[in-house]
Amino acid sequence: MDNVTLRIGFFGMGSMGGALLRALAASPDGLALRASNFDAARREALAAELAVQVSDAADLEAQVDLARWSDILFVAVKPGGVLPLLAAVRPALRPETLVVSIAAGISLAALEDALGETQPCARVMPNLGARVGASATTYCLNPACTAPLEALLTPVLARFGSALRLPEPQMNLATAVAGSGPAYLLLAAEALIDAAVAEGMPRKHALALVQALFEGTGKLMAQDGSEPAALRWQVTSPGGTTAAGVAHLEAAQVRAALAGAVRAARRRADELA
Ligand SMILES: NC(=O)c1ccc[n+]([C@@H]2O[C@H](COP(=O)([O-])OP(=O)(O)OC[C@H]3O[C@@H](n4cnc5c(N)ncnc54)[C@H](OP(=O)(O)O)[C@@H]3O)[C@@H](O)[C@H]2O)c1
């Protein structure tokens, strides 16, 4: 492995692969980046935007070359495509190449079945926040992924946002909470905007307000560090407007709905395995 430049390859440049690649391309010091993807228009657009070499995923020779070239190989294709793809490029992988799957539900054991248990593997679950360097990422490693390899991986993950190592049995749960989490919060944002519009606010004002609301609340949570309930109590005066709104949400069983969403997403991740 080259000591100066870390070669990072990506199979897949869709929503998540594209977000991760963008985060790395934004500050590429010490990194060399390459990727592959099927869609020609997307390949050309991302290659031009990010100044990254992008090959055609339909070209098996190019796929094999990308696998051989990579020190860290991100597999950012749909879960059903991960294992066949890895089986196809397995002979080209160097023994020290770290294979990183970001697929929901695909276990380390499944990766080892496809690659052999001596191949270093990581299972990583980022979220869309990676696009702005604010992913809530979790990861776990197989035994072949040694401490020096983890030390190579963690600064890469840090470019996406925060990174928390978890025992593998918690990865599907982390997927359900944080991998899928942006969609839950975006749904809440959508509902707040629609409610403001329904009550008479122009849409562009509602959008601006809700954007600032999420940004401010996220910063508060991160900086304060206390339980969200403690912050919420600070803004809930007895008999006030917030108390009335929160009481309505509690009566509508918003907590139960969110708990159900996490259970359903976790079940789906279990099924994908
Ligand atoms: N989206 C999320 O929020 C999120 C969060 C965490 C983890 N993930 C995981 O990330 C993975 C990708 O999800 P996504 O949402 O980014 O899906 P996506 O937008 O459909 O992207 C998948 C990309 O992989 C490309 N691809 C398919 N087979 C390939 C191959 N053999 N070699 C190279 N590229 C190939 C596809 O190209 P074409 O479009 O040209 O076919 C597509 O651009 C999934 O396993 C998912 O579980 C997603």
Keywords:
single chain; 273 residues; alpha/beta; Rossmann fold; ProC C-terminal domain-like fold; 2 domains; eight-stranded mixed beta sheet; 12 helices; 8 strands; elongated; binds NADP nicotinamide-adenine-dinucleotide phosphate
Structural class: alpha/beta
- CATH-level-4 superfamily name of the largest domain: NAD(P)-binding Rossmann-like Domain
The strands making up the biggest β-sheet line up spatially as: 3-2-1-4-5-6-7-8
Unreliable segments of 5+ consecutive residues: none
Largest sheet: 8 strands, mixed
Shape: elongated
Bound molecules: NADP nicotinamide-adenine-dinucleotide phosphate
How much helix is in the residues?
Answer: 40-55%
Summarize model confidence as the mean pLDDT: 95
Describe the fold and architecture.
With 273 residues, this protein is an alpha/beta fold. It has two domains: 6-170, Rossmann fold; 181-272, ProC C-terminal domain-like (ProC C-terminal domain-like fold, Orthogonal Bundle). Helices cover 55% and strands 15% of the residues. It has helices at residues 15-26, 40-50, 60-69, 79-89, 108-115, 147-158, 171-179, 181-198, 203-224, 228-234, 241-251, 254-272; strands at 6-11, 31-37, 53-56, 72-75, 98-101, 121-125, 135-141, 161-165. Helix 7 (171-179) packs across helix 12 and helix 8 crosses helix 9. The radius of gyration is 21 Å and the shape is elongated. The model has no long low-confidence stretch (mean pLDDT 95). Residues 11-17, 36-39, 57, 76-79, 81, 85, 102-104, 125-128, 179 line the site of NADP nicotinamide-adenine-dinucleotide phosphate.
